[in-house]
Amino acid sequence: MQSGTSFSSREFFYFTPPLSLDNPSESQAYLTRRIVLSIVGAIVTLAYLTVVSFTDARGPFISIAGASGNIYISFLIFAFALQIALSLLKSPLEFYSDFLLEHRYGLSNQKFLTWLFRKLKAMLVGWVFLVVILTAFYFLLVNFPGTWWLMFAGFFFLFQILVAQLFPTLILPLFYKLKPLDNEPLNSRLRSLVEKSGYKMSGVYSFDLSRETKKANAALTGLGRSRRIIISDTLLGNFSDDEIEVVLAHELGHLVKHHMMKGILVSAVVSLLGFSIMAHIYSGYASRLGLPLQSLAAIPFLALIVAIFGMLAMPLGNLYSRRIEHEADTFAISETGMRNVFADSMRKLGRLNLTPENPPAWMEKIFFSHPSIGARIRFALGTDEKPHGTGVGEVGT
């Protein structure tokens, strides 16, 4: 299906033929639409929190929460009521972005009910973690009004480490079927790659990403004994053993360079700085209204400034992320010596994931957590020239 062709709702709910993966205009159009939808979603979130913070729109939510005699349960009811209302408000955007758009570009393998079930499951799992985070936050806000932000930053640091530990064994299996890799030569090859760097792992696993999408991925997940290699079946089905090894070497680079722990530490520092600034702003706001910090009437404003801070910090977070991704690329190329294979694997990932090789520079700097595919290919090949024979040309300026 080409861009601009009319299509029916039936195609969305069942199957849409994939677009040409070698068409740079299609990959750029897909990326642009996703970014526009993300920006619109952010605007909706900010507008919603602004209205709830500065108008009587928060009144019904406070009334609902007031039915409980326990301040912590009341707070959780209030917070989840706000979240559910926002989710409903943004549901058309999410449906278009996560389901219709993915089918429009031939990336999704899901029927509507399957997609909806997985979204609901993800929401419920997220809510479990959210209950823990919100309860800790409100407990500290109520009992330590002067230093709640400092203590919560410490809690959030430890919480991230716990989630990283639990992710491969408890969270990932809720969404994908993991099984030991049955390709013994490749299994041994990947284990040897990791163990050569002095690390151990619980095993090499494949997971059924193809039930959800045509995209491909691989990762080294977990900490300590929970560490494992996971490779999507889409990667196994479309990449050679050399290409899989060099992709995994990139993931190993994150481990060898301690990027996970560095990322958690950077997040902790940013959170500490951010929470201190937000706490100061929030304290002044509550004081002007004559409200205690834990007042439900003041909480939406804190959510608003948290959202604003997160959006402002995103480009800086992506800048740091691109830097460590480049370090991992450097490690992969140095460790395997397979420059051409690395370039081929990046090119293939770009095609499978419908990512343009050379997006506009401003788009990459603001929204990309990884260097562009084109930049990674040129780095691998040791040239500033656009590589020939890629099937993907320059997009944007």
Brief summary:
The protein has 397 residues and is mainly alpha-helical. The protein has helices at residues 9-13, 24-54, 59-65, 71-104, 112-143, 148-171, 184-196, 233-238, 241-256, 259-289, 299-336, 339-352, 361-367, 373-381, and strands at residues 178-180, 204-207, 218-221, 228-232.
Provide the low-confidence segments as ranges. 1-21, 385-397
Report the structural category.
Answer: mainly alpha
Q: Percent of residues in beta strands? A: under 5%
Secondary-structure element pattern, one letter each: HHHHHHEHEEEHHHHHHH
What's the main sheet like?
A: 4 strands, mixed
For the record, the count of structural domains works out to 2
Mean pLDDT: 86
What spatial order of strands do you see in the largest sheet? Answer: 1-2-4-3
Helix content: 55-70%
General shape: globular
Evaluate the radius of gyration. 23 Å
Number of strands: 4
Blueprint (SSEs and pairs):
Layout: H1 9-13, H2 24-54, H3 59-65, H4 71-104, H5 112-143, H6 148-171, E1 178-180, H7 184-196, E2 204-207, E3 218-221, E4 228-232, H8 233-238, H9 241-256, H10 259-289, H11 299-336, H12 339-352, H13 361-367, H14 373-381
Helix pairs in contact: 2-4, 2-11, 3-4, 4-5, 5-6, 6-10, 7-9, 9-11, 9-12, 10-11, 12-14
